[in-house]
Design a protein that fits this description.
- With 460 residues, the protein is α/β, with parallel strands linked by helices.
- It has 2 domains: 132 residues, Leucine Aminopeptidase, subunit E, domain 1 (3-Layer(aba) Sandwich); 316 residues, Zn peptidases (Aminopeptidase).
- Helix content is 33%, strand content 22%.
- The chain has 16 helices and 20 strands.
- The strands form 4 sheets. Strands 7, 8, 9, 10, 11, 14, 15, 16 and 18 form a 9-stranded mixed β-sheet that branches.
- One of its GO terms (molecular function) is metalloaminopeptidase activity.
- One of its GO terms (cellular component) is cytoplasm.
- InterPro entries: Leucine_aapep/pepB, Macro_dom-like, Peptidase_M17_C, Peptidase_M17_N_1.
- This is Leucyl aminopeptidase family protein.
- One of its GO terms (biological process) is proteolysis.
Length: 460
């Protein structure tokens, strides 16, 4: 992470954050040379505008960062990052203008502005450092930035280097770093241990399917995170067209996100008993691929008519959720890049979630607004239950009709959880265009909102 925090020092360049409608008042309080320079260079405080003001000896004396209007800031993530991305190399300090309530989120945006997925490149990024405003918990911000970096790196890595085995290795590295216990159930052992759906979906791959199981913490309420770890999704025998397959390295975005959230929880030493479950598979095509029309067994005993091999994520999650439910934890959260219907409903920027528990939903929604990690509640609509009940089995993994696809998928998953304190996220895990602090590629969705809400959700 080439963007870092720094201690106060004499060489730090003053960075003034200026809203458009506050510009005239700010300029009137400055030396005439500063005001004249700003006016001559057309500085207006527009969001993302950056102007370096010369100082002594040809050095930068200060930098003006446009902060726009409240209306414009509401349309973007990390508004200050829009100017920070244009700064020349150096160390900066926030001298004025940044609202206290936005300081922590904007400092996180500063850190993430430096993110680059450079695993396959030799070019390095120029360093930037920030002396943060007083009162910002820089240790916490650094934890959030590191976890977001983990999520992005995992999602961005091509499947050749992020197979189910590689995903398990990344989870094990995280577990060891924080003193967590780690276990995996691999290949045919999944059948011996009664995880038939995970085995069925992943058995056609050259890399055997597996269930990743990590435990951390000995005190406090119990929290189980379940992440979809489909490391590549061809669609199986219901093969995806090329255009739909190009981003399928990101189909383990749910797994990446729960690992990022787990890193936050462990690094911040939250008083919880944490469990992370990730069914890690590759949905491939081979002579032993599962077929449309097959009736599949599940860990819970429910039978499933498999009407589309491209609706495999809910199958592997079903076995993992059944295991999670057996321990009756205080809260279960699943995260998955599950349906295109969720994107149609809320777009690529919002993480929709489902829960029957109103207090959990309220806590999540409030936390998301506070820390700029947008979420939106969708309903477990009871009237659609019949859509997931086929004629010859207990459940249908791919109801016909095409309507309410995200809801029917969520209802399917809910059949494997017996308690009401369950939250399911249907995320995209991908930034489609370049934006400050959010370059095109993998991105975390919902993890920071969950972290912020956990104290209320679990009574910490």
């Amino acid at each position: 992470m080439p963007y870092t925090f720094a201690e106060e020092n004499a060489d730090a360049i003053a960075l003034h954050v200026i809203e458009s409608d506050a510009l005239d008042a700010w300029l009137s309080a400055q030396d005439e040379a500063v005001a004249t320079w700003a006016r001559l260079n057309g500085f207006s405080g527009t969001l993302g505008q950056m102007l370096a003001v010369p100082g002594d000896g040809g050095r930068i004396g200060m930098v003006l960062a446009g902060y726009g209007t409240a209306e414009k800031r509401a349309r973007v993530h990390f508004p200050l990052a829009h100017a920070a991305a244009k700064l020349p190399e150096g160390t900066y300090r926030i001298a004025s203008g940044l609202p206290d309530e936005a300081a922590e989120t904007e400092c996180l945006g500063w850190m993430l502005t430096g993110y680059r997925f450079d695993r396959y490149k030799s070019k390095s990024t120029k360093p930037h450092a920030l002396v943060p405003p007083a009162g910002v918990d820089t240790a916490r911000v650094e934890v959030l930035a590191e976890a977001e970096t983990l999520i992005r790196d995992l999602v961005n890595t091509p499947t050749a280097d992020m197979s189910p085995a590689d995903l398990a290795a990344a989870a094990e590295t995280l577990a060891k770093a924080h003193g967590a216990t780690f276990d995996t159930i691999i290949g045919d052992d999944l059948l011996e241990r009664n995880f038939p759906l995970i085995h069925t979906v992943g058995r056609a791959s050259a890399t055997p399917p597996r269930l990743i199981d990590m435990h951390w913490g000995e005190v406090g309420p119990s929290l189980t995170l379940v992440g979809k770890g489909v490391c590549f999704d061809t669609g199986g025998l219901n093969l995806k067209p090329a255009g739909s397959m190009s981003l399928m390295k990101k189909d383990m975005g749910g797994a990446a996100t729960v690992l990022g959230l787990a890193q936050m929880i462990m690094a911040l030493n939250l008083p919880v008993r944490l469990r992370v479950l990730i069914p890690a598979v590759e949905n491939s095509v081979s002579s032993n691929s599962f077929r449309p029309g097959d009736v599949l067994a599940s860990r819970k005993g429910l039978t499933i008519e498999n009407n589309n091999t491209d609706a495999e994520g809910r199958l592997v999650l079903a076995d993992a959720l059944a295991l999670a439910d057996e321990d009756s934890p205080d809260l279960i959260v699943s995260m998955a890049t599950l349906t295109g219907a969720a994107r149609v409903a809320v777009g690529s920027d919002i993480a929709p979630f489902f829960t029957d528990h109103d207090a959990l939903a309220t806590a999540l929604s409030s936390a998301a607004r506070k820390i700029d990690d947008p979420v939106w509640r969708l309903p477990f609509h009871e009237a659609y239950e019949s859509k997931i009940e086929p004629a010859i089995a207990d459940l249908d993994n791919a109801p016909t009709g095409g309507f309410a696809g995200s809801i029917t998928a969520a209802l399917f998953l809910r059949r494997f959880v017996s308690q009401s304190r369950y939250v399911h996220f249907d995320i995209f895990a991908w930034q489609s265009t370049n934006a400050p602090a959010r370059p095109k590629g993998g991105v975390g969705m919902g993890a920071r909102a969950l972290l912020e809400a956990l104290p209320e959700m679990l009574g910490l």
